[in-house]
Amino acid sequence: MDLSEVRKNIDRVDGEIRKLFMERMILADQVACIKAQTEDAIYKPDREEDIIRHQTAGVKPELKKEYTALIKRIMEVSRKYQYGRTIELRDCFPFTYLTEAKPIGRLAMVKEELYLCDTCSKDSVLTVDSCEEIADCIKNGQADAGMGIIEEVGVGVSDELHNLLWKNKLYITDCVIQEEKGIRRKVVTFKDALTVLPSHNRIKIMFECPNRSGSISSILSMISDYAVNLTEIHSRPFEREDGWNYMFFVEMNANMDTKEIRALLFQLSQETSRMHILGSYFCEGDF
Fold this sequence. Notes:
Layout: H1 3-38, H2 45-56, H3 61-89, E1 107-110, E2 125-128, H4 131-139, E3 145-152, E4 156-157, H5 159-168, E5 171-180, E6 183-191, E7 202-208, H6 215-225, E8 229-240, E9 243-253, H7 259-271, E10 274-281
Parallel strand pairs: 1-2, 1-3
Antiparallel strand pairs: 3-4, 3-6, 5-6, 7-9, 7-10, 8-9
Helix pairs in contact: 1-3, 2-3, 3-7
C-alpha cells in the first residue's frame, strides 16, 4: 500500500467522523434545550471523567492518552455549542452593563502620576496617596472615575491596580498608550459601572483556574475556539486555605456586546473557580 492509498483511507475515515460529529451535535443541541428548561449545569466534570474512564477502557496503552485527548476535545466543543444555545434559549448572561458612557466631572489619581492626565484640567483632579484611596473617592462620590498606570509594556504590570479593580468592582472604561523615553505605558481610566460601547475592542478579565491538571490549557483552548486573540496574559500566585493557586489576568481583543463573546464569558464564568470582568474599552494598537 502506497501513501496515496493511505490518504484515501484517511479521507474516508474523516468523512465518517464528520457524519458522526454532526449527529453528536444534534444530540448536544437536544441536551442544551433540556438544560435550558431545567437550568441544569452544562459543565459537569465528574460526569465527563466517568465518560472518559468508560470510553478508554480497553484502549491500547500506547494510544490511550491520544484517545483521551480526542474525547476531551469533543466534549469541549460540545460544551461551547451548548453555552451559545443556552444564551439564545434563556436570559442567563451573568453580567450587567451600561451601553452609554457617563461623563467624568472629577477624576481621582495618585499624586505622583498626575503628569499622566492630559484628558482634563489638572485643577479638576483629586490627588491622593494610594490606589485604595482612589477607590474610596469613587465609592463615596468624591470622584466619578480613577486613573492610573496598569502596565509598563515589556517592563511590568501593576498588581496593586489589578487587585483594586476586582476587589472593589471597578471597571476600566478607557485605555491610552503613552510613550516616554522608550517606555510605553498603559494608562487606564476606571469607574464603578461596567460600560460597553460599539467602539470597544478590548475586554479585561481575571479568573482563577480549578486546581487540577490541564485546567489552564483547557481554558486557553476554550478562548481559542471562539477565535479570540489574547493581547495580554499574566499570572500571580496567591495563598488559599488549602494551598497555593494562581490568578490569571487576561486582555482579549473582542467586544462584549456580541453573541459569541457573551457565550464565551458565560462559559468562563461557569468553568473557572472565580471570574471577574475588569473592563471593556478601546485601545489602539497591539500592546
